[in-house]
Design brief:
The protein has two domains: 1-64; 65-142, no CATH class. It is globular. Helices cover 32% and strands 18% of the residues. By secondary structure, the chain is α+β, with helices and mostly antiparallel strands. It has helices spanning 21-29, 67-84, 92-100, 115-123, and strands at residues 2-8, 13-18, 43-45, 52-54, 61-63, 86-87, 109-110. A hairpin with a 4-residue loop joins strand 1 (2-8) and strand 2 (13-18). It is built from four helices and seven strands, in the order ββαβββαβαβα. The longest helix is centred in the middle third of the chain and has 18 residues, at 67-84. The structure holds zinc ion. Zinc ion (ZN) is lined by residues 8, 10, 12, 35, 37-38, 40.
Length: 142
């Protein structure tokens, strides 16, 4: 997960969360990024360095921030996921595979998965990750 400071043509500053720098480039080039305040898709990345870095493989994550900032990042991340994904519940692993193998429409989903499910999906090259909360509060779901 990576966070960029973004700026639209009307000088609105906002944060964008992306799975990777490539994901940002892809969405940026495809014109899929839009300012949450005015909807402009003319969005530029600010030069500031992203403050969340995720290592590949066994390297795990490295986050440098104080506990208050980490907590606020965690909240924003969960909110972002809730707003930008479709809940498929216990069908998560099946849906993720269907999307990966283009048997289902490409979309962002969330749902329930066991550690085993997650491991198997990752072994198939399907990018999934676990939310940093065990149970999502009901009132946050729509
Ligand atoms: Zn704007």
């Amino acid at each position: 997960m990576i966070v960029y400071d973004l700026l639209c043509e009307n000088a609105h500053r906002f944060e964008g969360w992306f799975a990777s720098p490539e994901a940002f480039s892809h969405q940026h080039e495809a014109g899929q990024l839009a300012c949450p305040m005015c909807g402009s898709s003319s969005v530029q990345k600010q030069p500031s360095a992203p403050y969340v870095q995720t290592g590949g493989g066994d390297n795990g994550q490295a986050v440098m921030a104080n506990p208050e900032l980490l907590e606020s990042m965690r909240r924003k991340f969960v909110e972002f996921v809730l707003q930008s994904t479709v809940d498929v519940g216990p069908r998560f692993a099946d849906e993720a595979r269907a999307i990966h193998y283009r048997e289902a429409p490409d979309r962002a989903i969330r749902g329930l998965a066991t550690a085993q499910d997650t491991k198997e999906l990752q072994e198939e090259g399907i990018e999934v990750f676990s939310l940093p909360v065990p149970v999502l509060p009901k009132d946050k779901l729509h």
